[in-house]
Design brief:
Blueprint lengths: L1 E6 L2 E7 L1 E8 L2 E5 L6 E5 L2 E7 L3 E7 L2 E6 L2 E6 L2 E4 L2 H42 L1
């Protein structure tokens, strides 16, 4: 298989000759082998593992995203990715970087919602005058 891990502005990994891939979804982890049927999966923040014909297992910490398998091509599109060989450090990176980012996004969305509601309220008041 050919694996591509895509970030918003670059290709993080492009590897040919991949024998197997293990990814994490909200429902749990699942594996891909070359003869598996085509599929699409929503990825949860976690560790993506792949094994190439040369080089052994490689671990990539990925943020939430989408995995698409079409034929022999597997595309993984995520917001952030961190490569490494030490699983302990990668798990820490997932917890520190990706899961904390979700908390920051929730607070930013809350502030934006308050701004929008204030804008709409003022707009209605101006329209009444």
């Amino acid at each position: 298989m050919t694996l591509k891990v895509l970030l918003p502005f670059q290709v993080f990994v492009e590897k040919e000759g991949v024998k197997r891939i293990v990814a994490q979804t909200i429902q749990g982890s699942f594996g891909l082998l070359p003869n598996r049927l085509d599929c699409v999966a929503a990825l949860a923040p976690g560790i993506l593992t792949y094994e190439a014909e040369t080089g052994g297992e490689v671990y990539v910490a990925v943020d939430e995203g989408v995995l698409v398998k079409a034929g022999a091509n597997v595309l993984v599109s995520v917001r952030n990715a961190i490569g490494g060989t030490d699983l302990g450090r990668l798990h820490e990176a997932v917890a520190r970087e990706f899961l904390n980012l979700d908390e920051r996004e929730k607070s930013v969305r809350s502030v934006i919602a308050k701004l929008e509601s204030g804008f709409i309220r003022r707009f209605v008041e101006i329209k009444r005058e």
